[in-house]
Fold each of these.
Amino acid sequence: MLRDITLGQYYQADSPIHRMDARVKLIGTLVYIITLFLYKNLTIYLIALLFLGAVVKISKVPLSFILRGIKTIMILLVITAVFNMFLTPGEPIVSFWKFKLTWEGIANAFYLCIRLVFLIVGSSLMTLTTTPNQLTDGLESLLGPLKKIKVPVHEIAMMMSIALRFIPILLEETDKIMKAQMARGAEFDSGSLIKKVKALVPLLVPLFISAFRRANDLAMAMEARCYQGGEGRTKMKPLKYRKLDFGAFVVLGVYLAAAAVLGKLFPLNLIPL
């Protein structure tokens, strides 16, 4: 299960998506997320699916590797779908006790699950094709205007970069601790829900200790190198837009226009709302 989490991981490959400026990918991800919430119909999701499929193909990241991240949220998807189906008011299909299964609930659950899956796949694709350093530089550049109102942009970007970098490290550490404790007779998958929660306590204690130790080592290393924040610092690899990035902006504009216009003029609803 831990190995199925793809957030924060970087997939090494030589593709146009990998070579794009991080700012383009950040803006593109934001535009993609916005289009998912423009309208609630299948037309917008079909356009988003075609766009996402094309980007995945160009990125050379295996689709199976990207979809691994969905396994970790399956329980959340199921719970969300059930709550929407039985707690949304509307025309009842089946009713028992105080719960009613409605057409409106089925529609809300269907569209919400599609949005969550597309959102996670799109966001994962951005982190899989962009290194943490590139994400930090891109985010700091995009938020640069906020420096004029004394917002610590560099520090915010640095914290996000460190958090993303630590996710795969902590997952690997968790996997090692679990295997070590299972070798000593610990059981994490058997028993009732309460027993499973109690079994996690011996796992969380060493994990927190390891995380605090790594954070302390990182802080001492930054202090030993006289780190003073982003004021006056130069970039080893300055961000610079190229022809590939300008072409990507054109494609994003066409995609946004197509989603906004076609989703409005040709709505397709297989489930009545």
Amino acid sequence: MSFNPLLLLAINQLPGTNGWLKRRVWKVCRDEADLNLATQEYKYLRSSRAISPIPPAQTLLKSAEIVYARLRRYQIAYRILGEANYPVALALIVDPPLLLFHRGTPNFDYNPAVAIVGTRRPSPTAQRQAYQFGLEFALASYPVVSGLAIGIDKSVHEGTLAGRGITWAVLACGLDRPSPMSNRKLAKAILDRGGALLGEITPGNYPAKYAFHRRNRILSGLARGCIVVQAPKKSGALITANFALDQSRDLYVSSAGLEGSISEGTKNLELQGAPIVNHSSDVLNDWGRTSNGEVIEMIEGPRGPVELSRMMRLELDGRIFRHMGGWFEYSDTRLA
């Protein structure tokens, strides 16, 4: 069915996160002449607690034209809530976005995804375990979702890419300008290797404080379960954890994120009943799914030039990985 994309983009920019209400308004908006009535209906139907002003119809249309041009320029596509290619898991949360923008071509009809998040200033041990989780889920063929931030998120994405897996980065900014700048090379690697950048923020926008909260509900909403690797008492990762619980997602904490002052938030989650996990197999077993026999174990570094040479050969063969001073070895228990 054909439709005017400018009308859709205009209605998408109405304030609020109730995608189903925006869809309802969009479906009865036949042409630009209906847009003014549609915005008035939205104002009437939205929550009585909502206070954000609704822009005039012409303002929404002008903004939609700018967004449309950026979508074409940066090859950003979108999935529409209620349509067949929209991720089912996300559609089931309380407030899914009307439009999920994406760069890359994510396949949401595969194995369920796992979200892995944590602090931007982790301990080296927690950062290494985040990388290991990414590696293991990649080898088990489960998509990994994170937020492209520095620290835990970056290690998660890097571990998944090292394992030749699929990773999705959910952003709190327009997909035409991935943030932070220091991770733009990583964002490109995600796209180049079959992953995707996702989000609801329209192109052209830099990260804003409100957008991280909205980003986190999408991050957890796309996944079946969420692992918090390490989080201090006040952390965006804990917001994601709360969303995961509200969305009836499985919540786990990493064993490496329970030590030290920067782990107070993780320890509180564990005290509240979140299971501790060491490997992807712990999560998959909890889901009633068996792993494929591929295991990643942290090992000691080489103790001499002969051992270093051997380990470097294994690294070239894709059986040894290095991250943040740690060494990881891949083994297939089915061959034992």
Amino acid sequence: MLAAGFEEFVSIVDSGSVTGAAEALGVPRPTVSKRLARLEERLGVRLLHRTTRRMKLTEHGELLYERARRVVHAAREAESAVQRIDNVPRGLLRVQIPPRVPAGTFTQWLAEFLEEYPEVSLDVVGTDVHVDLVAEGFDVALRYGQIKDTSLVSRTLVVNSQIAVASKEYLDTHGTPETAADLADHNCIIGYTGSNIPNPRWPLLAGGWCHVGGKLMTNHGGLRLEAAKRHLGIAMVVDRNAQALVATGELLHVLPGILGREDRARLVYPDRGFLDPKVRAFIDFIVARLTARRAGGAQGQSTA
């Protein structure tokens, strides 16, 4: 039997608060507080220094957390293994997604998933931060770009190409750059890293980056494309979003063969030696929806 209070204590540390632990465990906040207090009383030590603004592990708390975390995760794995015997997707599925995922389409898919798998419940968290899935208790995440954690299993959903574009009018007025260094003399429309940090570095196909500057910064891809159409500068955009405009000559591809990159959208999950039925069901479901969407002619905006 899992030692009383261990799961609550580990959840408090992982989430950073009693409130976060209560939400993760699906129990009232006072219950979590009482179980932590009983654990401290039983051990005869204080595990956490608590103030109104922050929470910090004591020396005893750090020692217990390192050991209790392994016990809690092992217990959760054992519970999951028992539930997998009949191979029916069930239980809470925690999913991490980046904020750029179109809410309308994804919410519709989630509703259809819950209807198809009534024994599964979902906890969906939006963030661009690549957190430790195991430590934070996530089952699967949708991520863009490079996956640095080699312990994760990944499945590629979409491959986007990033290209630089500008209007003919802008290039006629300011000149067409012939090298990446020439961009220093141009107004470049700056995108973001994730959702909240302007990124004045543009990728080079040969590897590495070049620094750019400009008067307009936005994390909205559609706005960058529209700004380029209105002759405000050179923008880095998703290739397929600009294809029709490049084909008609409304926008021109800037520094082809020099600027750009591939940006992959992947579903990733921890490599535990097996795949929980609810995780497999979710992955297969999302892949099927994406496949059907592409086969239908990519109506509207893409999902990645």
